[in-house]
Each structure stands twice: as C-alpha cells, then as structure tokens.
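re: that complex we talked abt at group meeting.

here r the seqs, copy pasted straight from the sheet so there may be weird spacing, ignore it
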Amino acid sequence: MATPAVTLTEMRNRWLRGAIAVVALLLILGPSLLRLAFNVWLGAIATGLSFALVALGVYLTFRVLDFPDLTIDGSLPLGAALAATTIVAGVNPYWTLPISFVGGAVAGTATALIATRLRIHSLLASILVTTGLISINLRIMGRSNIPLLNTDTIFTPFAAPFRGALVRLAGEGATRYASNLLTIVLIGLLVWGIKALLDWFMRTEIGLALRATGDNPQMVRALGVNTDGMIILGLALSNGMVGLAGALVAQYQGFADVNMGLGLIIAGLAAVILGETFFRPTHFGTATTAVIVGMVIYRIAIAAALTLSIPFPGGRLSLDAQDVKLATALLVLVALWLSHSQKRG
Amino acid sequence: MLRLNDIHQTFHTGEINEVRALRGIDLELLPGQLVTVIGSNGAGKSTLFNAIAGVFAPSQGQIVIDGVDVTTWSEHRRAALIGRVFQDPLLGTAASMTIAQNLTLASLRSQRLGWRTGVTPTRRQEFHDLLAPLGLGLETRLDSRVSLLSGGQRQALTLVMATLANPKIVLLDEHTAALDPATAARILTLTSQFIEHQQLTTLMITHNMQQALANGDRTLMMDGGRIVLDISGAERQQMTVQGLIDRFSQVRHSALVEDELLLAS
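got the structure back, here u go
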C-alpha cells in the first residue's frame, strides 16, 4: 500500500504558499493583464509552449542531475539553425524535429565529455561549447539570420483545415486567432508527448540511476553505476530537448537567429523556479508539468510587464522589449535569494 | 575470498606533503569471516577500504576478490562484488528518492541497467518481505522519501542495500558511530544477523575496542599504514581491552624508537 509522502497540513501549506505567490503576481501585473488583448494572451501562451522544452531541459540538468549546464544558450540557436537550413533546402519540415534534437544532443554530449573526461568545471565546459557553437551556428546558416516566412513549416499541413474548423465553430472573426491557437494545440500536444516520454524514462532502471547520480554520486558508484555515463546521457537528453525547442521557436516565430539563445539559461531557470513556487511538486511527473506551466507563466508575465506603466517622479515608468532581460535577471536573483534564505532559516 | 598482496598507497608522491597511507598490507580473508579493524585516526583504515573498493588504484600491490584480480578495475565495476556502509547515514542512500527506488537500484547492482520499469510490483513485494523482519516499519513506507527517515532507519536501509545483491565482500566503515547508543546496538545486531544469515565475508572498522573483540572471529589493529596486530582464535578470546591498549602502546613505542634511531643516524 502506498502511503502519502506529505501530510494533509503540509499539502494545505503548499497550496497556500502557491496561492499567495499567484495573488502577489496578479496584484503587480493584474492591471496590465486586463489590458492585454486576447491575441497577446494567446501569443504569450504559444511562445511559452514553444520554449517549454527549455524549461524541461534546465530542470533535468540543474535540479535532477545537479549539473549547472549553460550549453543550452548555444543548443537552442543550433536547433533553430539546423531547422531553418533544412527547411530552406526543401526538406519536409517534420524532419527538423529529429535533426534538431540530435544536434542539441551532440552539443550536450560534448559538454559532458569535457566535464567528465577532461575534469573541467561544468560551467566552464558549457561556456566553452557555447562559444564554439556561435561559429558553428554561423557556419550552418551562412549568415546571422534566416527568415522562414514563405516556407513550409510543421504548421502548414494543418493550417487550412484548422482555419476551416475554427470558422465553422466560432465564425469568420475567429480567424485572426487561428495561427496562435494552432500553435498552442500542435506544440502543446508535442510538448505533452515529450513530457510523458520523459516521465516514463525517469521511472526506468536507467532513469532511476540518473536521478540518483544527481542526488548522491558516491552511493551510485558504490552500487556499480558509471556516473560519468549518466551525466553524458542526462546532458544529451537535456540539450536534445532544447535543440528541438529551437526548431519549434524558429518555425513559430518565422526566423532563426544566431543570437536567439542569449540569456536563455536565465529564462529557463525563471520558468523552473516559477513552476516550483506555484505547484510545489513532490513527484517527478508533477514537477515536469510544473516547469512547463512555469515557462508559460513566465512568457505571460513578460507580455504583461511590457504593457506595465507606473507613475514615477518626472513621468511614467514603462518597460521596453530591451528591458526584459534585466527584469528576468532580477526576478531570478530574488527567487534564488529567497530559496537560499529559506534553506538557511 | 579477499586477498591483498603487499598493498602500498602513497598520496602526493614526490611532493613536500607526501603521505604514505598504506605501507605493505598483506591480508587474506576466508569466506564467511567477520574481521574487525581498529586503529587510531590516520592509521590507514579508511584508505585500506577505499583501496579495496577501488576509489583509487593502489600505488603498488595486488587485490584479488574471489579468485579474480581486480587491481585495475574501476570503482563502479568492482561495486558488483562489494557492499559498503559508511559512517555518515546520509552517504548510503539517495535522499530525494523513495525507499523502493533506492532498493531497486541496490538490487540491480552487478546487473546491466535497462529500459524496463524500475519499481515493479514483484520488486515491491520482495522489498516488503525483506524489510518486514527488521521491525522498523519500513515495509509500509516503501513510497516515502528517504529524507523523511531517521539516521538509524537510513543506516538500516543502507545495510539492507549493501547486502542485497549477494556481494562477495562487505565493508563497514564505523557504520554505527554516528548513531545514538540504543540505535547503534540495534544496527549492530542487524549487522550480525545479516552476516550470519547470508554467510558474508566482512571487514568492519570500529573505534570501540570492546565492540571489536565482541563481534566477529578475528581482529586487526592498524597503525602507520601497517597491520600491527592480527589475532584470532584462543588468543583473541583471552584478549581484553586493556590488553589491546598495552599492545598498541608497545607498537607505538617501538615505532617512536625506530624514528628516533632514523633521525639520530
């Protein structure tokens, strides 16, 4: 018989703290959220879902493996670059998904090998690979930006029937939401499928060993598991998912750019922390859901923050697109500081 | 079952802080033997265990387990043959994982991990039957995270994990030292039960000389990277704690005299 790992009062506390966090965020961003047009909402959710695999990847390295990996800043544009060049070359867009996954996985493996075989610190190893990837991504694309506006994407085969169904359901006016809604449905299904696969993998024998490697490597070695192998596998999986996210983002946003991974690690961390704060997950399955929703919340918060306008001495203070990175960095800083002081207290 | 031939271990070779942690260890353990190991801090007890477990390759010498030369084997490869319990209860288990998940990993020792589901109903039943005789109630908490257990419960779980997949050698490194006296006694009783029941060849480090003489059938005393005393049988039965201390002082004195002679010459 399974006994609950958490008592009822503990559960109530979890929900209470989650609720407090939601209310606080709503109070700050509430007025802006109300001002958002419906399509901006949809756009934020669609963007959040396209980036959701980044959150899963960051969760896998930072939380499960306890291996701070910055390679994703390079593997997202790598996935995007591979996707854009294969699409422009006339290949079926669905091939971009496995290709980008494998590309990202190779980048992750490179970092893991540098860290485990050459005994170079994980952060430095991942910065080395990311730096090298800038040149590789430029080589793949041949220039710094490839637009995907009049090309086929993974959305093309579904666009016309989806639009038709939408008109039948909600009338002609609904068509301006069609592109965002289709993205939400299609990428939502894809992300859910990968989350389900990841949850299954974490329950297998190898998955258990991978989790234990992040928890207690000494014990895992004493039980006869090669921890280096587990780190390689974990980083390949994580960066493979991020590479796949690169392919999705490029096709949703309509371009691939060498700089699209800049500061991605902080966005990924923000999503993980937001998801954990709101849902307080106790199991791996709930944690993966939590970080996916965390990424969506993060994109909605950014969309809302961009319309934020508060009275300020000498005018009004409002955020621009260029301020998003600073705002995210501050958000993650505060969240990290809070979780540290909680542990100490 | 275990044979050590002239094991030497030197750290920081050729540097000013060179440490000769082991200086020629020869040891032969018979199957089913429980051997207790005593010695002061820095005597080389834990270094000896690390050398046997393969945490590092010895500078010199040969390690044979069950007739197989494992001297060059990596730690994780050797782990199939060796069960270990450390002093710190936190080191033996993965805290964020459940009891069933920890036991699953332990039961897979010496096997290739696969893409099969880890915690299966069959395994749960096995773990339940395995934990029930301990009388700690762990069998009803298979899905609890190990971080929710007490130090004693965690150490009992580690002991179960270390002995689960029929290891050839069990290494116990002061595994009751961090526990309160009542729990320590309890874990020690469990240890003897496991060893006797499965006929496990065991090395047990302890700081408690009474414990060293009361348990097992052979006692080693280590000092300065050497085995300075190896008693068993009638000699060991007549040995007292005071006797051990006297022997230790004798060894220490002669070592001091040796050093003085070296320095004088």
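couple things i noticed - Chain A touches chain B at residues 1-3, 5, 201, 203-209, 211-212, 215-216, 218-227 (CB under 8 Å). Confidence is low (pLDDT under 50) at residues 1-5 of chain A.
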